[in-house]
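Reader question, answered in our methods column.
A reader sent in the components of a multi-part assembly and asked whether the whole thing could be modeled at once rather than chain by chain. We filled in our standard form and ran it. Here is what they sent:
COMPLEX SIZE: two components
ENTRIES:
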Amino acid sequence: MAKPISIYQLEGGPNQFFSPFCWAAKFAVAHKGFAIENIRWKFREADKIAFSNQGLVPVIVDGNKDGKWVNDSWAIAKYLEKTYPHRPSLFGEAAVLFVQKWFQTGGPLDVLDKILVLDEFNALTPDLQPWFRETREPMFGCTLEEYSVGEAGVPDFRKALEPMRQLLAEYPYLGGKDSPSYADDFVAGFFMMAYALSPVKLLEKDDVIHAWRERMMAAYGGIGKTAIGYPESL
Amino acid sequence: MAKPISIYQLEGGPNQFFSPFCWAAKFAVAHKGFAIENIRWKFREADKIAFSNQGLVPVIVDGNKDGKWVNDSWAIAKYLEKTYPHRPSLFGEAAVLFVQKWFQTGGPLDVLDKILVLDEFNALTPDLQPWFRETREPMFGCTLEEYSVGEAGVPDFRKALEPMRQLLAEYPYLGGKDSPSYADDFVAGFFMMAYALSPVKLLEKDDVIHAWRERMMAAYGGIGKTAIGYPESL
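And here is the structure of the entire assembly that came back:
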């Protein structure tokens, strides 16, 4: 029978366990079906977790693996998934849909649309332009020209990409270490939209997202690279 | 040998293929290793895709499955993953880390911290309070009292959760249809923090996130429900 896994977790005040990272680790251990042994740890009790060569909780100690310890909630999640792959998985496909929701809902797309709207209008054949204006302007509640921010929107767009930037600082793809996922395909689609429509430089060359876009345009036999667009925008 | 998959994709202007959703579908088909047959579709060409009983592209037609068609980029991704599970996966674990980055980086946590900071301060034993103030105030660039927004931050917090709300309108968990993932565990940890610290009602009862929080507090034998906190906050 599996032994319990111990968790050093923050007791912030008497009987107050409010650290979200300790809770995440605790949920993850329970998620994998292990009993939990709670070990109370108060702020600044460095000695108590000195064995882990660092000063923060959560730290788990796995009685099933000769007392192996792991610190940091995400490292704990990855350890549990790798060590106990046949127990309920900590990873799930819906997170790929979440990336899409993030991009489109109050996120980067809000400003990207405003950067590109007049380019899109101008790309249309003249017979379609009145229809585009008549259908979009009521949605925007203003004229296309009022809605447009053009290049001035680029700093806000870059800022809105921050969660993706932080992820790509750790992984080459939104899909992980080795290959893209549909989350990559989806977000790359919007960069293809920009490439097709506009000479505006959306990304700085030293941005990890810039290198990711290169990889995505070269992926799958380079179908992105062969598209017609504005190379000067890259 | 596999036959190509056809894609009806938007030709927005002459030779201009800028629809991000068509690009996402195109990347996804290439991702699965199929050759692509491009079929040009112009705005308002309803007749050309009338077979799909709707008026938007992308639509794919799969020559390997008796010409089965699928419309909508996310439905196409799910169809490809389900139909061709042994080809490179469209889903990847890093998206679970993305949910964490989203929550913490310019997202819901920014405001949640400001709602809870004084509750956290007050939860500490008196010996730790000066240390908390001395370490946090330089990070915030102001006093704890100036940083705090308390209950007034709740509308912004709810708004920042919008991508998660949209996801949970389609799936019971961030992890998908049947069970939580570590993305659920992680975000639930922050709701446990709030539960432990504050009577503030973060969520309205008719919010899908409210029902999700119930499910997460009851998950894994109910370890969340047994925690000491403010039941009136739920």
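What stands out: Chain A touches chain B through 88 residues (CB under 8 Å). Residues 94-233 of chain A form a domain with the Glutathione S-transferase Yfyf (Class Pi); Chain A, domain 2 fold (CATH 1.20.1050.10).
Send us your own complexes using the same form.
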